[in-house]
Amino acid sequence: MNDKSTLSSILVVDDDPAVSQLIQCILTEEQYAVETASDGREALARDDLKTFDLFILDINMPAMNGYSLCTELKNSYEMRDTPVIFLTGNILPEDKVKGFECGAIDYITKPFNGSELIARVRNHLEVKHNRDYLKQMALTDGLTQLYNHSYIHERLVEEISYTKRHELNLSLIMFDLDNFKLVNDTFGHKQGDKVLQKVSRSIKDIIREEDVAGRYGGEEFIIILPNTDHVSAFKVAEKIRKSVKNLKWDNRDMKITLSGGVSTLSKESINEFIEKTDVLLYKAKHDGKDKIISAVPVMN
After folding, report:
1. Are residues 160 and 57 in the same domain?
2. Which end of the chain has fewer CB atoms surrounding its CB within 10 Å, N or C?
3. Sign of CA pseudo-dihedral 64, 70, 95, 13
4. 110 and 208 together in one domain
5. Same domain, yes or no, for 61 and 171?
6. What angle is formed at CA 257 by the lines to CA 252 and CA 263, rounded to 5 degrees?
């Protein structure tokens, strides 16, 4: 039995159940994980929408048509590079042009040929997976495998814009390892690198899939938490702090702790948001280390 998590995932959005089921049957036989939705609104309501590797959309659907859905997908930071194929009965050249202008990568007309659909899907997924690999290499810190400083800054700009546009919450956590210079001086830089790697794994094990963790510099880490209020963000920060404090090390004399600051976006710019959180981080270090300080007091 195939593990769905290892398969390329495809969402088919079509208001004709017979068409959706046919596409699902054809592509499932090719070892793809295929889900269906009956229109654009149903698709956008899916909690797992951002996890799909490719979208196949009809155009003429109730509630929200394929053009509008494609535009919504392309306006999302996480899904703007996910390939969209229109599979529709609209055959006029102007329909195709509109589809490409919305951001689609391909256009197939009904009735369709199964072998052609498979070939197009396979090619677009191969290109996407290759692009994702190269993108990941460029955006990732080589030592910790967390996102690097430049990507974190770019992503935070996007998240702030999205948060303000949709009137949501956005929280930020900044961590700094306590006395890390002493760790390097006492146990060596090789051991210091292992500490950074182990702490990074601990962070990744705790945060949600939609959260974005990065190495902001040296021994400093940053986590973007979309749609998260200050209380929930503080709880995440505390969970990470405790997890790091309880990590086991080969050298029993080595104790690793971290300090952190937590804040939630109000009306600040990106630089003001980061600075506000950074000030809280260094207040935590100044007040004794191994603690989390929030912009809004939270009962621990």
Report:
1. no
2. N
3. negative
4. no
5. no
6. 165
Q: Is residue 167 domain-shared with residue 69, that is, in the same domain? A: no
107 and 157, same domain (yes or no): no
CA distance 216 to 225: 15
42 CB burial (10 A radius; 0-12, 13-18, 19+): middle
Q: How many domains does the chain have?
A: 2
* Residue at 143 is within a domain: no
* Catalytic status, residue 167: no
Q: What is the pLDDT along the chain (300 residues), one digit of tens a residue?
A: 344 446 899 999 999 999 999 999 999 999 999 999 999 999 999 999 999 999 999 999 998 999 999 999 999 888 999 999 999 999 899 999 999 999 999 999 999 999 999 999 999 999 999 998 888 888 999 999 999 999 999 999 999 999 998 899 999 999 999 999 999 999 999 999 999 999 999 999 999 999 999 999 999 999 999 999 999 999 999 999 999 999 999 888 899 999 999 999 998 999 999 999 999 999 999 999 999 999 887 766
Residue 299 lies in a domain: no
Residue 12's domain comprises 4-137
Q: Which of 35, 42, 219, 272 is catalytic?
A: 219
What is the model's pTM? 0.69
Note whether residue 142 is domain-resident. Answer: no
Sheet of strand 258-264, all strands in order from the earlier edge strand to the far edge: 212-217, 220-226, 170-177, 258-264, 292-294
Give me the CATH number covering residue 112. Answer: 3.40.50.2300
